[in-house]
Fold this sequence. Notes:
There is one protein chain. 41% of the residues lie in helices and 17% in strands. By secondary structure, the chain is of the alpha/beta class. It folds into 2 domains: 7-69, NAD(P)-binding Rossmann-like Domain (Rossmann fold); 84-375, Rossmann fold (3-Layer(aba) Sandwich). Helix 6 (104-114) packs parallel to helix 7 (128-139) and helix 8 (157-167) packs parallel to helix 10 (188-208).
Amino acid sequence: IKVLGGRRDIPEIARQVSAEVLLMAVPSANSQLVGEIDDIAVATGLELRVLPTTSELINNLRVSDIRELTEQDLLGRAEVEVDIRQITGVITGKRVLVTGAGGSIGSELCRQLYNLAPERLIMLDRDETALHSVQLSIEGKALLDSPDLVVADIRDRERIFEIFEKERPDVVFHTAALKHLTLLENNAEEGVKTNVVGTRNVLDAAETVEVERFVNVSTDKAADPTSVLGRTKLMAERLTAAAAARVDGAFVSVRFGNVLGSRGSVLPTFRHQINSGGPITVTDPEVTRYFMTIPEAVRLVLQASAIGRPGEIMILDMGEPVKIVDMAKRLIRHSGKRIEITYTGLRPGEKLHENLVAQDEIGIQREHPRITHTIGQMAGEDPTSDAELTGGMLL
């Protein structure tokens, strides 16, 4: 194949050969390079297509399955490499239970766990429609007749204990939570009931049946929290660490930021606003957030579950923070529409910039370059009596 030029030559070369599609085959491209190529394609009137990555080819995607540009491409993240032997060592042949199995993280976690051949994969959620969706995505059918599908609310302590006594899981991934920041600012009691009391119920049930591994899925908003969401999730981290001090199993928390494509996240909101003719609403022109794709986050959660030590909080490498307004502008360019951006101001509890590590935490890297291990100053202490977190500051 003859090389006709570099990136700067694309517009002229495209004109000379009457090109209609620009194919990007640079799997290691960072966000700056991807953004530059995307801008060239938009300015030149070319459709940008992407060659599948190595991991996509492994998952039976063919080279001929050239795809459109995704948000993951725009983040410019290197593919996540995990030690599959370590992960299968703690999952394969085990009885695994996932709370919040129908959610964005929980459902992807179930899909990846299913491929690791656990003895049982018990999927627990209070939403029967969500359980229908996750079963359909895994088995290709959704009759809702499997004993592996469990309808329950983690707030119901008696029901949770009943399930754990019956199923006796070896490994638990706790993803069930209320997560929408603004909603919880106005409904703090509900946040406490689910994120604190519900987590305590699941932890206590896990302790009773001597679970080997317990992974509490947390959020960056638990680091130096300024919101009800952050405070309740910090409480869940502290409860998990306190349980770790009492049991023989590895009870850990995994903390990460926003995931692309989850329900209620910024990208679906922006697309809806664009399709409706605008405007796109952004809180502040300088606001930034950390982002990961859902599969990327889940692979690292699985890796963390295999290497975490009791009581640790493991923080996933989210890359560089992204300016929300830049994401909005790029989506507008792709739409080809004239859409206004309006600024609404930060909402109660929101930060301009999120941080992943709290001021009282010291992080170290051990076995995986994209996982930081830390233990907060209160690790091992039972936080039940902490009035600031259990109620005084929330209600």
